[in-house]
Amino acid sequence: MHLADVPPELVARVPAEQRGPGRGRDSVRLLVSTGGAEVSLHAFRELPDLLRAGDVLVVNTSATLAAAVDARLGGAPVVVHFSTRGDGGRWAVELRDPAGGGTTRPRPGGPAGAAVELPDGHRLVLEEPLAPGADRLWWARPDPAPGAVPALLRAYGRPIRYAYTERDQPLSAYQTVFAVPAADGSGSAEMPSAGRPFTAELVARLVSRGVQFAPLTLHTGVSSQEAHEPPYPERYEVPGTTAALVNAARAAAGRVIAVGTTAVRALESAAGPDGLVRAAGGWTGLVVTPQRGVRVVDGLLTGLHEPAASHLLMLEAVAGRAAVRRGYAEARARQCLWHEFGDVHLLFRDEAGH
Prior knowledge:
Elements: E1 29-33, E2 39-43, H1 47-50, E3 56-60, E4 68-73, E5 76-85, E6 91-100, E7 103-106, E8 115-117, E9 123-129, E10 137-143, H2 149-156, H3 200-208, E11 212-219, E12 234-238, H4 240-251, E13 256-259, H5 261-269, E14 280-284, E15 299-303, H6 311-319, H7 321-333, E16 344-348
Parallel strand pairs: 1-16, 3-11, 3-13, 13-15
Antiparallel strand pairs: 1-2, 4-5, 4-8, 5-6, 6-7, 6-10, 8-9, 9-10, 11-12, 12-14, 15-16
Helix pairs in contact: 6-7
């Protein structure tokens, strides 16, 4: 992704609640695109008026980790971004160079066998790239205790921060109202940000209108800030209760609306060719594209993505390319804000034939 594609004045640099007195997390704007020609702009607090009784919001309960830790490699300072907890005690990590002011810049990964010195005498031994031909993310094995990483992050970690943000934020600023800490210390390297504008009060209003919530979990890794990379495999779980709720809603003509691209990836990974969702979990490498299409999702609530982001293909799979283009043109014209602290976009499937 390239920040140059979005005008600087349209980048959300601090959370909504810090942009003025009396503002809260839900003080963002909500752009609504249908598969047809209609595009409208609302306050996010109006969401209950835009949904129907029987609709289901599928939400990601993954908690955000304090995934950035200062370290040293070969005597030089580096920042380790802990991306994904793997099998057998390994972690997928990204090494970055400090850039001053609490931000970082990219650096080459590896080399294999190198030991990254962490606080309290812990180390990471780099083993191999996460994917063949990729150099940004590497599998690394903690030494001496693989199970010590969650405690290390709690003691020394901080949220991953990118240079477009104005200042460091506490970890609480990166947790959604749906976040549930995992018993094994797993979580998301970066916030499932589509859920950030929800508040407990707004959830209660939605429930009172007959909108249901269906939880699932997908632990998202670091985003592709410097490379046009497809999503890497991520760990997910769709419980049987969520599968049953989604299937029942679809049978009753309710709409299934995913809160975030992570929820789409997990839910569509659990959907069979027959359109039924079944309890599922493990690793998913699914990349949702217009060619693959969606089997279950009728709508998607998501942030505003960079023009080169692979996530835009998922948006097109839900609502069609024309609707996505019209929505983004309107977002620019109406001065909507991009990135994890910015405004959000609700896209509906084109009922007329997409």
